[in-house]
Amino acid sequence: MIMNKLKVSIIQYAPNYADVDANLKRHIEIIRERADEADLVVFPELSLTGYFLRDLTHRMMLSSGELVKKINDGLKKKKLPDVILGFVEEGESHNPYNSLIYLEHAAKGYKVKYIHRKCFLPTYGMFEDARFFAPGRNLGVFETRFGKIGMLLCEDAWHPMSFYVEALKGAEIIVVCSASPARGVGGLKPHNLEHWDKLNSLAAATWATYIVYASRTGVEDSVVFSGGSGIFNPAGDKVAKLQEVAVPKEKYEALNYEIKKSEIRRARETTPLLRDENLALFSEEINHLKLNYYGKNK
Amino acid sequence: MEKINETRKLIGEGLRVNSHTVEKIAVEFIKANVLDIGFSKVVLGLSGGLDSSLVAYFACKALGPENVHAVLLPYKLSAKASKSDAEKVVEALKIPKSNVSLVSITPQIDAWLKKNPVSLKAPEGRLRFGNKLARERMAVLYDKSADLRALVIGTSNMSELLVGYGTIFGDMAYALNPVGNLYKTQERQLVSEIPGLEFLAKKTPTADLLPGQTDETDLGMTYRELDEILFGMIDMRFSRDDLLEAGYSAKKIDYVIRKVVANHFKRAQAPIAKMNRRTVPVDFLYLRIAPKI
Q1: What ipTM goes with this model?
Q2: Backbone φ and ψ of A195, nearest 5°
Q3: Which residues of B touch A219 (CB under 8 A)?
Q4: What is the residue range of A272's domain?
Q5: What does the pLDDT look like over A208-255, one tens digit per residue?
Q6: Between A59, A220, A245, which is nearest B25 by CB?
């Protein structure tokens, strides 16, 4: 059954640092609470563990199979929303990945629909991702009841190719999950969040897709995360949002929004940039780059 | 000419802060680094100056004034205004009187100085004297910390940390610090917007170690000049040449660079000789909040 509307619920919260069991319990409670009003519940990056894990990274690993089992054991209900959450995935060769998992709910419980592994692992400034995680190797898009969805993790979205590739692969909704440290205090919101808004807005308007931005709050030592989750419509407007920085203690905030296929159609009729993309040209340029740039000593 | 204006304009704009955003971040930071690790209270040395008053304000916002303990730690040479300004701050922030204590450090300092005299006329003597005062205050605060089960909240700002205008294991000792990434110029702007603390924006900053001492005389330039050079170099990553081109004086730029470099030892954790497989903090990497290792 193809749905023309999708009720999304973004969960903005602060995970308990490095406590998978506690966070799993919170995820299960939240999913249950959202069950009647959401088709898809979206948690932020590494929502099951916290972000700056450093030497705890390997200790936080779960295989996708173990994760699904734990969630199905905790949640027995006929009707439940699909879920996107962030965790440290134990992949091939016991390597840790910073992953997002899309869990689709069916009669027999949740099953794994798709896993996105963070591709761009930042190591500049305060970031240490690539020191502890193995990198993802593709920017996938997958079919859901609503249509095609793509997922991105934080730094992925700062590289324009990520949105571009997922848009070309047909994504109608791109879900961006982040743990973004608040920094730059000259404006009404932290500067990083102003940048996020520009980035998401531009991508949404360019490719006429919805962007669902789930951003965590809370604190890890020096770093306060900036929150400010939101929905960007296919015209690029931030049509719904949650507050910046502050988080109510022990609670979470949910942002509920109904995504409509008709809005995507309307935006793509108005601004058909995706229709006019030139894949042949793009592919030629990529080949040119491969031949003349990568791996060449100049 | 265009370049000069652009660099200076970027630095000037960059140093502006939004008090709403700063407060939100400071409040969440304090809550997490106090409440989430099982404490409810903080204790700080309140000097009646800008830094400690601003920290007291953030702490009151985060934890409630009833959970903020202020200790006034005068020495006999401290300026009289320090005490009355500290009292003004206590009143403005509604910190209960029972949370405020006055501990004169004169007896212990004078007892020490009697056996270990220093000359306040010589730079080395002033250094030893200033450090001794700062470390005595730290010792009192840490005793109060254990007594009250309150974390010592630090008040060193970014300008001081960068040029090393502080005493290692003295005022640089604390359990958490909400203002260590704010330049003095930014703190001034912030207090000018806080009811009851506005007077601090115009107050002459002083370490108040010796009568008549001011920070800006010690530093050889105003905080505004210092902060523009620091913010330009550190936050904006402008080079020495960029700053020269923008009209900052070579003498001042070089003085600031020397200070930042010479005092880096105070900011860096002391190295531990690596012997075994894992070494603190080289490859034993955990956040302070880590619940397990």
Answers
A1: 0.95
A2: -65, -45
A3: 28-29, 31-33, 36
A4: 5-292
A5: 999 999 999 999 999 999 999 999 999 999 999 999 998 776 689 999
A6: A245
